[in-house]
Amino acid sequence: MKFFLRFWIKKENKNFLGKGRIELLEHIKTTGSISKAAKNMKMSYKAAWDSIDSMNRLSKEHLVESNNGGKGGGGTAITPEGQRLIIAFKRLEKVMVGVESYLDNIVDLDDLEERIQILEKKLEIS
What we know:
Strand content: 5-15%
Oligomer: single chain
Number of helices: 5
């Protein structure tokens, strides 16, 4: 058997973070632009903006900040809190990959149940 795990984070019963939103934050970080980040992800500017607005509203501190145009033009940046969140999400992804690896190559239901029991003990889940 081969296992594939996905996760996302909800806050106040609303979708807060997932793989796509983290990818959007990373594109904003590299491009300095919501518009360019949206284009890189083949999504509309409005969809990108709505995701950012939702994340900013649900977060204790803003994750993304935009500066209005001017002589040098505007721009968008990831805040230190946004960067911390990207790093934490990536760390959690690595943990999930570890769980996937641990569950890979299970041969039957007995093997699966045994590995689940081991995980439950390690994670103190009853």
